[in-house]
Amino acid sequence: MKRVIFSVMILCAASARPLWAQQNDIAVLRAEIAKQEVVIAQLLKRIEALEHQSPPPAAALQDLQDDIKAQDDSINSLRETVNNKVNLNGYYNFRFSADGSEEPASFQQHHLGVIMAKQLGKFNFLMELELQNVPHHAEIAVSEEGEAVSESGETTEGDLSGEGQVAVENAWMEYNHNRFLSVRMGKQLSPQYWWQNHYPNLTLSTTLPIYLRELFPAELIGVTVQGSAARPVGQSEFGVGYKFYVANNNFEGNSRTDLQDGKSWGARGQVRLPTGGALRRFDAAFDVYRGHVGLADNTLTEDNVIGFESQLEVSNFFLQTEWARGKSLEQTRTGYYVQPAYRIDEDWITFYRLEQLESPRIQRAERRHLAGINYRPYPQIAFKGELYRSQPLERDFLHAEGDEESKPFNGIALAAVFFF
Amino acid sequence: MWTGYASTEIIPFVVIVNNANPVNSLSTVELRRIFMKQSRMWPHGEPMVPVDWDSTHYLRTIFSKDVLGRSVREMQEYWVQQSMTQGLTPPSTQRSARAVLRFVASVPGAISYVPPSEVDETVRVMPVK
User: How many Å apart are CA B124 and CA B112, to the nearest integer?
Assistant: First the structure.
């Protein structure tokens, strides 16, 4: 039934035509196509006439054929412009995961996502539907009563990490006044680097950093004001950017259950440093989030999170780092990852990641070493493989009496990803 | 005129715009922003429509490296990322100078690049500082 609903939603989305706004553009473009088709017909007639001459002047014939090809290209471009009024993309991710933890090894039809986007002057719209059907998903378990329960103990409904769910992961509309000011409203991903780029064909690894779901919320339903400014420095530029958002409080991916007046807010400042020579990218950003988080008994408690991140690219070498610290109920939780990577050639990238999470809230303290390889025969296709070792950390907040001590374990994850 | 080359070197391409475009010149940074779709509108309110060359063409390789600072392959990966996170599509592509000229001549906000010898009166050369 879910698949039927999903298919119907896709068909409706694909066939939806906001004609009120496009008619003029499309009419102009169609008129242009018709005009150019007339030109092609005339050129074909001239070719036919030339071919009846004996012998046909080769140079003139070639010119005419070039003209026809050029007209064809122009028409194709115009058609492309008409058709691309609504852009439809998507991604598919299949993976295998096995490790020494309590989770059994499994093949996972992990993601099937469809992205629909539309630009109209200064307005943008983007919607992403995602089907997840993941047996033994690491972020979700099922309670004895059969309800989906997240690691932090909250009962979830329509959770984006749930089994077999069709979820709207993004649905936002944006107004771009200029580069200094744009407003985005709706359901959107949190602004931190990994959340923004968490898609399987954008990340090098198959698995997410272990700290990710425990610090900043994955998404927000609210309004974001953002902008940037840049100053040229030689052939490069120095840029600064900001984001400020007000959103519903976070209930493990389900902020529609936020029934209180006080909303969460967050802000982000980012800097893009000038580049040159081997230095191809140097970005840094600082994030803050103030909100409430839901507890197992459906009450809310204050939650404050800060974070820092940077992305560096020098020649074929990349370095991504993110760090965050959150505080709620007088308990502090922290997490980070450091991920160096090296592009061996156009198709191959190898990477290593050191990551850590310490969270009294979910009784987890773990360090993980991960090494992997990413093969992209085409920009749209990726094959990934990684090995990791998980090491439990000794912390005071762990080990209630009678608890069994965690043990280190090794794991492997493989994935095949297709962007379409 | 594109100035990334010394005066004694052969200039591989010039940037062209529609004849109706009133903008007098661009910087390299602005040109990069247009072809990465980080800038959307010309100052006179016309949408910017960058037109690229086919990914196998030598001119695309040169332009990508010199102006965008990335290889053609890296730019393809960039557009996969932009499609997923911003819903943006890469510039449309053309396979011949004639097609590029026709496109730029017929679309008011269009901008592209061609070998200097291919420029005709249907388009205007945009100086890039």
Answer: 10
The span from the CA of A83 to the CA of A382, in Å, is: 27
Residue A5, burial from CB neighbour count under 10 angstroms (0-12, 13-18, 19+) = exposed
d(CA A304, CA B20): 53
pTM over 0.80: no
Name the interface residues of B facing A (CB cutoff 8 Å).
Answer: 4, 27-29, 38-41, 47, 49, 51, 69-71, 73, 76-77, 79-81, 83-89, 92, 94-96, 98-99, 101-103, 106
- Residue B85 structure tokens: 């996170």
Contacts of residue B47 in chain A, CB cutoff 8 Å?
121
Mutation to test the B interface, candidates A65, A67, A73, most B Cβ within 10 Å = A73
If we measure between CA atoms, which residue out of A216, A232, A318 comes closest to residue A267? A216
Nearest to A226 by CA among A211, A208, A246, A206: A246
| pLDDT tens-place string over residues A266-309 | 999 999 999 988 999 999 999 999 998 766 666 678 899 999 99
Whether the complex's predicted ipTM surpasses the cut of 0.90: no
